[in-house]
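Try it yourself: sequence plus ME8, in.
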Amino acid sequence: MTKRFYITTPIYYVNGAPHIGHAYTSIAADVLARFKRLDGFDVFFLTGTDEHGQKVEQAAAAAGLDTQTYADKISQDFRDMADAMGVSYDDWIRTTEQRHKASCTELWKRIEAAGDIYLGHYEGWYAVRDEAFYDESELVILPDGSKIAEKSKAPVEWVREPSYFFKLSAWQDRLLQFYEDNPEFIAPSSRKSEVLSFVKGGLRDLSVSRTTFSWGIPVPDAPGHVMYVWLDALTNYITAAGFPDTAAPRWDFWPADVHFVGKDIIRFHAVYWPAFLMSAGIAPPTRVSSHGWWVVDGEKMSKSLGNVVEPRALAKTFGLDQIRYFLLREKPFGADGSLNHQAIISRMNVELANDLGNLAQRSLSLIARNLDGKLPGRGPATAEDTALLDAANALPGLVRLNMDRQTFHEALEDIWKVIRSANAYIDHQAPWALRKTDPARMAVVLRVLVDAMRVIATLLQPFMPESIGRMLDQLGAPADTRSLADLATPLVDGTQLPTPRGVFPRYVEPAA
Ligand code: ME8
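Structure, out:
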């Protein structure tokens, strides 16, 4: 039976245009989805848009549009962005869809039937920008006397209204037990400590309905109440798996294997979400993997600073695969990172054009020139041949381990170690000098290089699908045999290779 793997991105608020931060989460999730497919899994990869709540209602009003029309427009923009960035999602969910309303309504009823929902009165601070409630202790007072949430800097307002509550306080011990039983649930460990201390600090019941606006999913049998947008939004992950129809074929994918999230929304995914699910008798997800934030030239991206990076524009300047590579290579997944053109150019020119591109170009042009472009056969191996091939053949295991931990930069670093060894090998073997003196050995050296590059390229496909696809064409690996399992079958001796063409261009500053 094929192993199933379910990956999600957060669903993006339709309150503004997509930027590089959104593209980052989606690309990271895409890399894992593509890797799992290559590794023989049946993958379900979900992304989409979060369309309810006050924040979207306000953004639509500011744009002078009817809320649904506005949501349609921005949702499509996010979808176009995902397509443009090569995000290979299997389903695009929108929380305004009928299937999602049905799912939220059923989840609510189950939680209510479990005795975890009661009617009360909410009085406290709310930040529309974060769609989150805050305690007094989480706020700071500005010089003008207004208050903002300390962490996100979002302005808060005092809210007082009738509200349904979820008995989160009753879930403290069960959540702590759950984290203990599932040590891999939250990644990275710094976020895990943050979540544990939040939960250990005591949980208050959570307000899960609002009455002061109507852009949301109605609470069943409670006129005037719409569901809290986070309860609504989180439910998307089970909606897409078919909930409440647990006989649906997609339901076999639940629980999700990895929810990708930014560090800003870990609490919703790692505390509220498993509590809602356990209350409703549904298994919680296997893992919540959170990443850090991108700042631009050291500054937080913001409309007012005018430094918001549009992912499609960036891909146009440097190349889509170059950007995908940069985003996953530049910083550890969980850490924050700074986006700047010099850093992109340096990775693009040094690692892609030089280290990898030249390696391929040098080896393949020697085959083209000296062997009529025919893939040479394997021959007697020297200790150096074996060392390089062993290092390459160890890569799938190392990369798989890093993928399962979402330590993408380490996967790439492991791959680059072998690329650097291959460059040292070609320099030392100098196959160009063997053409006359020992052509048989030259052929063996070139085949060793092709075999090592084949493993490297196979593993790089998820990161840079288009460019690496071309590289594999040049290496003579047929398009339908590029999975990890296919690595066990050697390339066919004598295969006619296409004329080598550089796959990774150097970035040259356009003339002023
Ligand atoms: O939070 N750097 O949606 P959202 C890196 N609708 N990642 C960034 C980023 C940055 N500068 N800015 C945003 C929501 N992100 C909810 C999610 S899920 C059930 C509901 C990423 O549009 C980060 O992953 O505000 C963040 O979590 C995500 O964009 C969604 O942001």
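One thing you can check immediately is this: The two ends are 58 Å apart (CA to CA).
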